[in-house]
Amino acid sequence: MTALTVNGEERASRSGPMTPLLDVLREEFFLTGAKAVCREGFCGACTVHLDGEPVASCLVPLGAAAGREVRTVEALAAGGLSRLQQAMEDHDAVQCGMCFPGMLMTLTDFLRHTPAPTRAEVKAALAGNICRCTGYERIVDAALDAARSA
Ligand code: FES
Ligand code: FES
């Protein structure tokens, strides 16, 4: 068994240590927010926070997450929508939604470190998050709005 903390709860996984963290979250813990799209570290749809830093959970073996703190998109709305989530809603930014859990986890971390970003900085922060619906401008608008209303 591998012990780890997920969204503030102590959890134990029966999966092998090389199992991608993404699969443990989705298939064992039924936290299906993080999406399996490329499984190659390319698209960012599987992004979660590991000890507070965004990571591609498809590339993190469970063993590397042992004893560490994982936060998934499910935790963002624990007390109602986060400011960023509300801004995405207000800007009608979500299309198919596959990229959004990753977008939110990346931007949540980015805005924590960069509370007053420029448009170019938001775009650069999203370099590792691919939206195949290509709705980038509204996503950037929403991130800037969320920063302004903080
Ligand atoms: S599914 Fe992990 S980066 Fe694409
Ligand atoms: S909203 Fe469809 S991939 Fe981004």
UniProtKB/TrEMBL annotation:
Domain (2Fe-2S ferredoxin-type): residue spans on this chain: 1-76
Which superkingdom is the protein from? Answer: Bacteria
Enzyme class comes to oxidoreductase
Could you say which residues form the signal peptide?
none
GO terms, molecular function: anaerobic carbon-monoxide dehydrogenase activity
What UniProt keywords apply to this chain's record, in alphabetical order?
Answer: 2Fe-2S, Iron, Iron-sulfur, Metal-binding, Oxidoreductase
InterPro entries of this UniProt entry? 2Fe-2S-bd, 2Fe-2S-bd_dom_sf, 2Fe-2S_ferredoxin-like_sf, 2Fe-2S_ferredoxin-type, 2Fe2S_fd_BS, Beta-grasp_dom_sf, Diverse_Oxidoreductases
Presence of keyword Transferase: no
- Which PROSITE patterns does this one have? 2FE2S_FER_1, 2FE2S_FER_2
Q: Which SUPFAM superfamilies match?
A: 2Fe-2S ferredoxin-like, CO dehydrogenase ISP C-domain like
Q: What is its EC number?
A: 1.2.7.4
Q: Where are the transmembrane segments?
A: none
PANTHER family reported in the protein's UniProt record:
OXIDOREDUCTASE WITH IRON-SULFUR SUBUNIT (PTHR44379:SF5)
According to UniProt, the name of this protein is Carbon-monoxide dehydrogenase small subunit
| The organism's taxonomic lineage, starting at the top | Bacteria, Pseudomonadati, Pseudomonadota, Alphaproteobacteria, Hyphomicrobiales
